[in-house]
Design brief:
With 320 residues, the protein is an alpha/beta fold. Strand 1, helix 2 and strand 2 form a beta-alpha-beta unit.
């Protein structure tokens, strides 16, 4: 948290507001937040009872007073020129509503003794999330529907606040849910007039935090529930966008379910796989499983799941 807040305070774009949401924390976070807020008047702390990730994100969006909203999770941090670069890209066209960039996966560089933050050190590897798309060129998301298959790195960019408010783009507020970033970002892509993607990376996503929800093996069906919310949101945008984006979303869901299958307890594999197969069958009945969006191996797995979920589990007891 110290490293995260230090990185925000060091931004070359100085006129930013930092809304820090304390979601009922029981560790040293309140004292860290208080210390930073006392040192920097741009930091506004909102303390509340624990209501979960989605509700906390929504509280931050609603409290934000700027024209643009960015997200920085407390175990991550950003390069000093991040928000200045995002804002410069937002000015490429008057109708830009989202600016997103590649990001780093980061490990190491934890806080040192005496409260000093170790920005030096650690290992950073660029994740080329948007390299297949034009860089620094505004375009509507519907011209590249495969954009929904990118990693939902919600914290690697900025969103126009008026767009989020006008289209009620928010996170699922249900306590204990996971993967709320999937539906949030889908709604954002659908709502934006145009987007700008950057091939440079600025946000550093920490991968060595053992307490992160991304490494937890519980919440077996959370990813399923979040994708269902994504499909519900897509339907609200009309049939034209649905026909463009739904096949892409089914292909993205296949990748997310592989990841979930590999992280949950093998004792839960069959229950999860049965739901997986049911959802694939529904998509097939709608004609929304497009062969060209799947690799050869992934399409073989689709056929195995549709034929017999139990046999799929027996054939793939560990990883797919």
């Amino acid at each position: 948290l110290d490293q995260c807040l230090d990185s925000l305070r060091a931004q070359t774009f100085a006129e930013l507001e930092v809304v820090a949401i304390d979601d009922g924390s029981t560790d040293a976070s309140p004292s860290i937040l208080s210390r930073h807020a006392a040192q920097d008047g741009r930091i506004r702390v909102i303390a509340k009872r624990n209501t979960g990730y989605g509700d906390s994100m929504n509280r931050g969006i609603e409290a934000a007073r700027g024209q643009w909203v960015g997200i920085c999770e407390p175990d991550d941090f950003v390069d000093a020129n991040a928000f200045a670069t995002y804002l410069a890209a937002s000015r490429l066209s008057d109708d830009v509503d989202i600016v997103k960039a590649n990001h780093y996966e980061f490990s190491g560089g934890m806080q040192g003794e005496g409260g000093e933050c170790a920005f030096e050190g650690g290992s950073s590897v660029v994740v080329h999330n948007y390299d297949a798309f034009p860089s620094s060129v505004p375009f509507p998301a519907e011209s590249r529907p495969d954009i929904v298959r990118t990693i939902p790195a919600i914290w690697a960019g900025i969103y126009r606040k008026s767009m989020l408010d006008a289209h009620s783009v928010r996170f699922s507020p249900t306590p204990g849910d996971s993967f709320q970033d999937t539906a949030f970002l889908l709604q954002a892509w659908m709502s934006a007039r145009s987007v700008v993607l950057l091939h440079d990376a600025f946000a550093r996503y920490r991968t060595d935090n053992d307490s992160s929800s991304s490494v937890s093996g519980d919440k077996v069906f959370a990813v399923c529930d979040e994708f269902e919310k994504s499909f519900e949101a897509l339907r609200s945008y009309g049939s034209a966008k649905q026909l463009l984006f739904e096949p892409q979303l089914h292909a993205q869901r296949m990748e997310a379910y592989y990841w979930n299958y590999n992280r949950i307890d093998p004792a839960q594999h069959l229950a999860f796989t049965r739901r997986w197969a049911d959802e694939l069958a529904q998509a097939q009945d709608r004609g929304m499983l497009h062969r060209d969006l799947f690799s050869h191996e992934s399409w073989e797995h689709v056929q195995e799941l549709l034929a017999d979920p139990e046999a799929f589990c027996a054939k793939h007891p560990h990883h797919v």
